[in-house]
């Protein structure tokens, strides 16, 4: 079984993430191609290159082959919807169990992958951070600042283009949002302030 099939079978399907796909993958199965095509036809696209890639996929054209095509792309290659991100987040809040009671991950596996992993010597220089401490778990980000209203155990992932998935185990709350940006105009306030507004309303 290849890695795409494994992740779909063991993660996406049990979580009910029917609108989550690996971007630009061209499966041979016509049913799977039809599902991917339906998702892409609903996509909001802000840059010309992505628009052309989607159009080529929908028209059944293949892109120019690259040596990298033979490598599994399990990071930075997933396209999803807010609804599916919430399903994934609820599974993590449930310590590996979906709201429907399906066990996807072991409880201790979720604990281990979400606790801090990086040492205090790891520093953040992204977007002018100036070398502050950069805490990461095994995948999720654990950064926080004075503006965060999340519980101390929260973790998150910020995706490409200004999207975020926030998991707050103490509040048993999941937040997911997309912020549309014009290419090259990323603004942290649009991502971070959204979370501050949502969590500020908790009683």
Structure description:
The protein has 203 residues and is an alpha+beta fold. The chain has a domain at 122-200. It has helices at 3-15, 30-41, 48-58, 82-93, 107-114, 188-200, and strands spanning 21-22, 78-79, 123-124, 132-133, 155-159, 163-168, 173-178. The strands form 3 sheets. A 3-stranded antiparallel beta sheet has the order 5-6-7, sandwiched between helices. The chain is globular. The model has no long low-confidence stretch (mean pLDDT 83).
Could you state the order of secondary-structure elements as H and E? HEHHEHHEEEEEH
Span between termini: 47 Å
Structural class based on helices, strands and sheet pairing: alpha+beta
The backbone outline, from C-alpha atoms, is: globular
How much of the sequence is in beta strands?
Answer: 5-15%
Report a brief summary of the structure:
The protein has 6 helices and 7 strands; from the N terminus they run αβααβααβββββα. The protein is of the alpha+beta class.
Helices and strands in order:
Blueprint: H1 3-15, E1 21-22, H2 30-41, H3 48-58, E2 78-79, H4 82-93, H5 107-114, E3 123-124, E4 132-133, E5 155-159, E6 163-168, E7 173-178, H6 188-200
Antiparallel strand pairs: 1-2, 3-4, 5-6, 6-7
Throw out a few tags for this protein:
203 residues; two-stranded antiparallel sheet; 7 strands
């Amino acid at each position: 079984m290849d890695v795409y099939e494994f992740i779909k079978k063991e993660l996406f399907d049990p979580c009910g993430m029917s609108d989550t796909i690996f971007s630009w993958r061209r499966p041979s199965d016509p049913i799977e191609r039809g599902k991917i095509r339906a998702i892409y036809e609903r996509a909001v696209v802000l840059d010309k290159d992505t628009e052309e890639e989607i159009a080529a996929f929908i028209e059944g054209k293949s892109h120019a082959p690259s040596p990298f095509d033979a490598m599994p792309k399990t990071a930075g290659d997933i396209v999803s919807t807010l609804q599916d991100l919430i399903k994934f987040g609820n599974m993590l809040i449930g310590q590996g169990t979906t709201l429907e009671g399906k066990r996807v991950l072991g409880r201790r596996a979720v604990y281990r992958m979400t606790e801090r992993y990086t040492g205090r010597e790891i520093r953040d220089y992204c977007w002018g951070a100036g070398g502050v401490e950069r805490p990461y778990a095994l995948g999720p980000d654990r950064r926080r600042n004075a503006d965060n209203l999340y519980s101390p155990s929260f973790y998150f992932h910020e995706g490409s283009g200004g999207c975020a998935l926030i998991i707050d185990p103490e509040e048993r709350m999941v937040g997911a949002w997309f912020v549309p940006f014009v290419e090259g105009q990323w603004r942290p306030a649009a991502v971070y302030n959204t979370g501050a507004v949502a969590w500020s309303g908790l009683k």
